[in-house]
Here is the input.
Amino acid sequence: MARTDRLMRLMDLLRRLPAPVTATRLAEETGVSRRQLYRDIATLRAGGALIDGEAGLGYTLTEDPALPPQSFSRLEIEALRLAVDALGRIGDPDLNSAAHDALARIIATLPERQSRQALHAVMRSFDTGPERAPPRIDLSVIRSACWDEMELEIDYIDLKGAPTRRPIWPLGLSYSQHTLMLLAYCRLRMDFRVFHVNRIETLRSTGNSFRPHRVVLVREYAATRKAHPVRA
Amino acid sequence: MARTDRLMRLMDLLRRLPAPVTATRLAEETGVSRRQLYRDIATLRAGGALIDGEAGLGYTLTEDPALPPQSFSRLEIEALRLAVDALGRIGDPDLNSAAHDALARIIATLPERQSRQALHAVMRSFDTGPERAPPRIDLSVIRSACWDEMELEIDYIDLKGAPTRRPIWPLGLSYSQHTLMLLAYCRLRMDFRVFHVNRIETLRSTGNSFRPHRVVLVREYAATRKAHPVRA
DNA sequence: CCCCCACTGACAGAAAGAGGCAGCATGGCC
DNA sequence: GGCCATGCTGCCTCTTTCTGTCAGTGGGGG
Here is the structure.
C-alpha cells in the first residue's frame, strides 16, 4: 500500500503547506518524480479532491469546510432519498417523519458541494397505492418492547373472531403494503406467530424481560424460515 | 485505483452481509479469486480492521469504535432500514446496493449499543410484487447526465410505436413500481416529457451542458405541475 | 471419518506504477 | 516581446506489484 500511503501524505502536505505549493516541492516531499506527482494529483482529483493548479504559481487545495463525518457517493445519497420516499407508501407517520429527519441530518453533514448534488435529485417514486388505515393502538409501545426485549400481554381477536389473551415476546414489526403485522413468539401456543396489529385490542407490558431467550429465538426462527431469512 | 476501490467494497460487503461470510462469497462479490481475497483480507487487517476469520464458518467484522459518532434515534435507524428495504421493490440493483452500503456505513458509525439495537430490528417488508424487467440501457449514463446537467440524444419509440431521435435535457429518474421513467425537457417538442426508459433504444451524450438553463427549467416545471410538485 | 473452510507458500503471467524525456500552454516579470 | 517558472500531457521503458493457479496444512462441525 505504498501508493495509497503516499497519496494520504500528499493530501496532508496540501493541507499543511501554505498555498500555493509547486509540484517540485510536493515531489520532493513525497519522494517521487515530478511526472509521478502530476499523476498523483490527477488521482486525488479523480477521487473528488478539489485541487486547483495554476501555471506559474502552484497548487491550492480548497478543502471542504465542514469535513464530512462520513462520505457518501452521489448514488448512495440518491438511493437513500428514494428509499425514504418509497417508505412513504408503507410506513406509518411516525416512521416516515423519522426517516425524513434522519435523511435531512445526513444531508446536512455533507459538504456544500455534495449537499447541492443531493438537491439535484429530482427523481421520486409515485404509485400512491391505497392508503392503509392508521393503526388504532400505539405502535411506539410495541417498538419499545421489541427494542428492550420486554414481554407484552395482548388481547387479540384471532382470524376466527375469537378473543384471546396471551403473553408474547415481540420480535419485530412487519410492514407490508396492505397490513401491518407483528412477529412474535407466542407463549400461549409455544411457537412463532404473526399477529395482525389491527386485531390487537389492547396491549400492555408485563414487565418481564425475555432478553436471555432472544438469541435462541432468532436462531430458531431463522432455522424454521430459511426461505424468509431473518435479516441480521 | 482498482485495488483500493476493491478494498473499499470489501469493507462495505463485510458490513452489509450477515456475518459470518465465507471467503468464497466475498471473492465472488468482489470479482476476485479466493487466493486474492485472502490477501485482501490480510491487507485490511494490516490496515487496522478487526476481521475475525474462523475456519468452517467465515469472516466476521468487528467495527472500529474510533469513528466519528453520529447519533440517530432508534426510530430513525429503523425507519432508514425499512426504507432501504422498501426500495428493494422498486429500485434497480445499482441503487439497491448503494442504499445498503450507505446504511451499513451509517450503522457502522453508531456506538456499540445503538449498533446492537439496529440488529434487533427484525422487521422487514414483504410484498414482493411482480419483478420489473431490468432496463436494457445503462442507467448510470442517465444518472451522470442528470447530475452533470449534460444533454442527451436518444432514439425513442413513442407510444404509437414510431421511432424518433431527439435531444433532451434529463432532469431525473422517476421510479414507480411498474415502470421506470425519465423526466426531461425535450428539445424537439420544446416541452417537458416523461420518457419510458424501456422505450429508449439508444442514448449518448452530446457533450453540451444545459446548466445555464437548469434553474429556470425546474421552476417552470414546478409551475406547470403544481399537482405533482418537483421535489427541490 | 468426511467436508467445508481459513490460511500459507511458490511460481509465472498480467497489470499497474514510476522515471525520464520531449513538448505545449499559461501566467507573471522585465 | 522575450524569458522563465510552472502546470499539464504523451510516449517509451523498466520495475514493482498484483493476481490467478496449484498445492498443501490445519481447524471445526457433523
